Fold this protein.
Amino acid sequence: MSHEQHDMRPVQKHPLNVRIFHYILLLSFLPLAVTGLLLFFKPLTQESMQLTYDIHMICGVILALDAVAFTLIAFDRVVLFTARVFSFSMRDVKWFMVLGGYPQKFILRKKVPVPPMNKYNSGQKLFGACVLVGGTVLIISGLILWLIPHAAPRDIVWFMGQAHLVFGLLLTAFLPIHLFLAVYRFDDFKAMMIHGNVPYHDAAEYTPYWVEKEIVAVNANEESLNK
């Protein structure tokens, strides 16, 4: 194996403010997903459903405050993340044609060629776009349904309710896939949940386009400044 395959130099992928935001987002969305499903199917007693509703509201407020605070504190990162997840090229088409090679790896136990990815692969970009759009819709619709359901026009309240339901179910359906692949990519999981860094060899294997265009370029600039 080459030296690059053993290169353990840390490459920062998720800075501290992103990790804190992600922690709060995860810890608020998990109970939101569970309580949302309970509110949809209504399997509990009236008292238990009221408690479920209260938990749903509290976690919704926490998630909304987390999103607003991060947007204000790290607006540049929000803009950059938005630009990344909404970028699209033929590499994304080719990635989706093989689904990142994951089905072949898990089912057929073989590796297939996967186009080089940027900081996020095409599946992560799709999930990120859904989180940005769906999260915004959930926050706005949730606030309307909670605070002014009788003051807003009836048609708007109905539309907000349907949008809240659709995007809530969509993000909840995405969640187990996201969690499974996050743990599968354990170096990336540790970077998001613990220290923020991935080993260079992991970045070079899974996100070579990001390494080539951004990491190597940054290192080259730093070296030229130090001369």
Remarks:
- Strands lie at 10-12, 197-199.
- The chain is about 75% helix and 5% strand.
- The radius of gyration is 21 Å.
